[in-house]
Specification:
With 326 residues, the protein is an alpha+beta fold. It contains eleven helices and twelve strands. The two termini are 32 Å apart. The mean pLDDT is 89.
């Protein structure tokens, strides 16, 4: 039975201490990631009208769930009529282009009304297909991401399979002054990281590729799972990260079990005081960590070695051995 785990690089600061004190893991909005293609991987265009119509119908069925919510509010109904006129204008003036008809999301309610207006009229599919097939596909792709991912506030926590990557230590752990935590996720059938045993996380291994994904090859019954492909596909230049992603139904902090933290690894440039303060914090809160480790620079290679900590690694921090209580 395969064990699941991931390593998370962090700066040692107030946010880190707060996460340890409250035994929390933070799940980010994927729109805030530093890679502009992250959660927007490139996709293959198609000339297959049947596949495009199937994709259009799937989005329409999802938006139909909001029909009652839209029509019970007079303001929403007015906006619905305004979007109908706007869409008619774009068709009549042949203005459906990426630069003019923006996919930016400023207000989620307005966006839902706009999309419902477009997808509730099947003639819009035929008209846009004939007028600008490429933009129809771009629009449906962006609309899928909003409807299935953004609108539900899906959160992502990023980690790695590799605790020895110098670039990761440099980018995400304060230039090697920070820390890397190993989280035990359980095995491939039972998770043990969430404090609430009813919580369920999806664990995704990131795929690094230069090839676009074939979003229109998904059948209607499998289109719901396309979101996992979108959230776990990255440009090949990021391959060094060996990234693992935890996917949660919400964004923000999630309570985890303290027992899920099984290793603490300090950066090669971390200070003895930060090491001591962090170890003491973990000990005082009752964390039962298997290993206290530190990254060391190898003398003959551009690589890091993860080694057991010794008392020398906290020398000069002002600590007394009797204080450690470990």
């Amino acid at each position: 039975m395969r064990k699941e785990h991931f390593y998370k690089y962090s700066t040692i600061n107030q946010n880190f201490y707060s996460s340890i004190i409250n035994n929390e893991l933070f799940f980010s909005n994927p729109r805030n990631f530093n890679d502009p293609f992250d959660s927007y991987p490139r996709f293959s265009l198609t000339s297959d009208e049947i596949k495009l119509k199937s994709f259009f119908d799937f989005l329409g069925s999802k938006l139909n769930n909001f029909k009652a919510e839209i029509f019970e509010n007079s303001n929403n109904l007015n906006k619905h009529e305004q979007y109908k006129r706007l869409i008619e204008t774009f068709f009549s003036a042949k203005l459906f282009e990426k630069e003019l008809y923006e996919n930016e999301i400023l207000d989620k309610t307005n966006k839902l009304i706009e999309l419902y207006t477009f997808y509730s009229d099947e003639s819009n599919f035929e008209k846009l297909l004939a007028q600008n097939s490429e933009y129809l596909q771009i629009k449906m792709y962006h609309d899928y991401i909003f409807i299935i991912i953004d609108q539900h506030n899906i959160g992502v926590s990023c980690g790695s399979n590799n605790p020895k990557c110098p670039v990761m230590w440099g980018h995400y752990a304060n230039n090697h002054k920070g820390i890397c935590i190993k989280y035990d996720l359980g095995n491939d059938t039972t998770q043990n990281i969430c404090f609430d045993t009813n919580e369920k996380l999806d664990v995704l291994k990131v795929n690094y590729s230069d090839d676009p994904i074939n979003i229109f090859d998904y059948s209607i019954i499998k289109l719901e799972d396309l979101k996992f492909k979108i959230l776990s596909n990255k440009y090949s230049k990021w391959k060094y990260e060996n990234e693992i992603r935890l996917i949660h139904k919400d964004q923000g902090s999630l309570k985890i079990k303290r027992s899920s933290i099984t290793e603490i690894i300090f950066g090669c440039k971390s200070t003895p005081k930060d090491r001591y303060s962090t170890i003491k914090l973990f000990a005082s809160l009752g964390y039962k960590t298997n290993k206290l480790l530190i990254a060391k620079r190898l003398p003959d290679k551009y690589e890091l070695s993860i080694q057991k900590m010794t008392m020398n690694d906290i020398a000069g921090s002002g600590v007394y051995i009797e204080e450690m209580n470990l």
